[in-house]
Amino acid sequence: MEKTNSLQAKHFFPSGPNKFKDPRVTFIQETEKYVFKDDSQNLSYEWDDDKKAWFPMWNEQLMASQQSAYSVEGVDETEEVIKPKDKRKAKIYTMEDESAKKKPKVERKKIITSVYVSGLPFDTTLEEMKEVFSKYGIISEDINTGQPRIKLYKDSEGNLKGDGLVTFLKPESVELYWFDETTGKRAEKSKKVMILKNMFTVEEIEEDPSLILDLKEDVRTECENFGEVTNVVLYEKNPEGVISVRFKDELSVIICIKKMNGRYFGGKRIVAEVYDGKTKYKVENPLEDKEEEERKRSERYRKFLNQQNEEEQKDSTSENN
C-alpha cells in the first residue's frame, strides 16, 4: 500500500472517486470501473473501490517490465518453449489381441535335488537307503557331519514313520530316479515282486489243499514286517514250490530278500530273489488236465452205475416180499 501511495504521489494520481473530474480518468461501462491513464508511463490504472486505491492494468509493456525484473542471466526469455513429448503411448483399438504379441516371461526352472519316499519298512536303516539310492547318483553329504543327506522321519516318540528324504548332489539324479519310477512299467512292476522258492512241495499241496491258504497267510504276515504287501500268489503245481510276494515299493523287496534268503522253512532252505519279469511260474499241462477230467468223468459215471444197481436190487427185493 505504501508503494502504491508513493506511485500515486509521484505521478499525481487523482486522490479518490470524488475528484474524478480529472480528464485522464474515464468510466468504462463494460467493467463499471474508473480507469486512469498515465501518459508519462504509458500505463493505465484501475480504481479498486474496496481498497480505495489505483492498481496497474496488465498490458504488454507491463509484462515486459516484469520479465526484465525477474529475468535470469543467460536465459533467452523470447525463445519458444518446446513441450516434451508424452512418453505414454496412445491406446489404439484394433481387432488383434495385443497381449498375444507380448513376449512370455521366461520362468527359471527350480532345481530339485531331493526325493521324498514313503511306504518304507519301519526298521529301515540309513545304510539300506544309501545302498538303494546310490544307483541313481552321488548322494550329497552334510557339511557338518560328512554323512549322506538321508533323513528318516520319526514321530514324537522317536519311532520311524515309514517315510524319508534323500538329497542328491546333482538334479540329474532326481530325474533318473523318476525316470526309473515312471518308465518301463513292466520292468518296474517286477522290481516290486519277490520270488520265494522251496516253500512247499506239490505232494504236500495235493495231500492237504488247505495248506495253500495257510502258507499264503504265513508268508504275508512275515513279509509285512518289511513293507506293505499288496498281493501273495502260491503256484501250487510248480515243482520249485514258488510263492510270489508283491510289495508297494522296491525298497521293501530288497530289504525282505536280505532277511529271507538262506533261511529255513519246513526243513528246506529258502531262495529269495527279485522277479525277473519273464519267468512264468504257473505250471500249465493241458494233457494232465485232460486226463484228470477224464478220470473225474469216469468216477462220476461209476458212481451213477453203482447207484442204479442199488436201486434195481431194492426194487427186486420188494417184489419178492
Automatic annotation (TrEMBL):
Record's keyword terms, sorted: mRNA processing, mRNA splicing, Repeat, RNA-binding
Region (Disordered): 1-21, 284-321
GO CC annotation terms, alphabetical: U2 snRNP; U2-type spliceosomal complex
An example Gene Ontology biological process: mRNA splicing, via spliceosome
UniProt feature, compositional bias: Basic and acidic residues: 284-297
InterPro entries: Nucleotide-bd_a/b_plait_sf (IPR012677), RBD_domain_sf (IPR035979), RRM_dom (IPR000504), TatSF1-like (IPR034393)
Domain RRM per the UniProt entry, residue ranges: 113-195
Sample GO molecular function, one term: RNA binding
Keyword Zinc: no
Signal peptide: none
SUPFAM superfamilies for the chain: RNA-binding domain, RBD (SSF54928)
Pfam families, sorted: RRM_1 (PF00076)
Family named by the database record: Belongs to the HTATSF1 family.
Protein name according to UniProt: RRM domain-containing protein
